[in-house]
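Discussion board: Methods & Data

I've been asked by a reviewer to show the raw model output for two of the constructs in my manuscript, not just the figures. I'm not sure how much to include, so I'm pasting the format here to get opinions. Each protein appears as its amino acid sequence followed by a line of discrete structure tokens. Is this the kind of thing reviewers expect to see in a supplement, or should I convert it first? Here is construct A:
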Amino acid sequence: IKLTPDGELLFTLAMPLVEQMDKLPEEFAARRGDIDRGRVDVAAGWSTILYVLPRYVEEFRHAHPNIELKLHNVTGAEGLAQLRAGHVDFAVGPLLEVPEDIEFHPVVSYEPLLITALDHPLAQKESFTLSELSQFPFILPPRHLSTWSTVDSAFKKHGLDYEVAMEVGGWEVIKKYVELGLGISVVMSICITGDERLHVVSASEHFPDRTYGVVLRKGKFLSPQARSFVAMLLPAATAQAESEAPPGP
């Protein structure tokens, strides 16, 4: 077989490109393996940042001290918007409903607890009904957060009215005002240290557990740095993200 003049010209032009392509896997592997530089952006709510992520952040920072880590303190809806827009690598938090373009990989679940002041009438009880709870004012996080939806759904399901005396942000603030006897609340077990001056009892009979997980956008290719952090949160999520990533670099 003999190349035509046009074929020889094309061969000459293409040869350097072919050589670069042959070296591409080695070059890509070398650069991909160096994950000690770069940045990871994570969207998460205040409670997730304060209670769920610290041990993972500590582990990641010790393993990769030169990688910049930015935690975006956002609501669940804001986190999804940032994820879809490509402003963050992934999100971490609870997700009550999973949209079609989103993957949710559970990491850890926490039990709901009823908290009251020590001298509250409910403090004498180790169990309760929703009807009994409806007789007392609640202190809840803002209504756009998942705790409000959880409490509201439980009462509406049983046709019960309830009163929200205060709407405040953050479980630490809620615990403080409950200690003062200004209302009762439902919080997740992760925020209870045992040092609080509160009566604490399980509320899992009436309210669901809260599951926190890794939130990924389907089809999004994670950087090596982001995959490393996800691996500390959930190795299975990393494997699935890899398998569903687009082919090629």
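Construct B, same format:
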Amino acid sequence: MIKISGNSNYKVSVIDNKNQFYIVKESFTKDESQRLKKQIEKQENFIDTVIYKPDIIDKKESKYIFEYIRSYDMINYLNVKSIYHIFDYVDKILSFIHREIKESIVQEIDVKILQTKINTIEKNLLNFRKEKIIESCFRYLRENLFIFRNEIPIGRCHGDLTFSNILIDYGDQIYFIDFLDNFIESPLFDIIKIRQDIVYGYIFQTYKGTYDKHRLSMIFDFMNERMNREFGDYKMYFRYLDIMNFLRILQYSKNDHMDGYIINVLSDILS
């Protein structure tokens, strides 16, 4: 059995059964098992005409076996493929978000849901209260709740649409993996999670392989320009949700390097 490194709280491994590979994901506590079950149900219910998902081969109480997709990871794909393949990839991802928004119900959010989430994150970050930027972030979130008096799209979303959770198989088909349940199910969070990589370079902090950073930065700038243009109606939420997103990540940071990176990003967003 080969253990796969990752950022989730679950154990993820590859197993070889007579030269047939499978992904195994399992949880070990009641709370984690309940959350993993929700995420699996979200993956099962995901249907799209362009984006694929790994088949679920078997499932038990807290252990799930998935189809193994032979694929590029996104950073490797962006490094080696022609610009025409990359343009096609960008078009497919942005078209997917457009479909999400189109299928959503536009409605006003009860700010109490956001207040509760902010309070929970703050409790989990008590060790960072000495950091003035963290206090400033929470102050900003509470003082700007009024922006959610406007209606936003509520509906289908992946929940954690980072480059780490997008695979391209050797036939150039796009696969989504590691769906995540969210406290608000909105396509806006898929936009924010992509911004996490293309605007703030989070993928550079976690990726273990080699890459041409100059090439990737140009591709990311291109993607960011496209997203700002095509989803400009929602730009008023980007700063708010970017801050909330990185505070949520900080809860699970496991080393000083990542702590410092996130704090610097939050400082840049606020400034």
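Answer (T.O., handling editor elsewhere):
This is acceptable in a supplement if you add a one-line summary per construct. For B, something like: Residues 108 and 149 are 6 Å apart (CA to CA).
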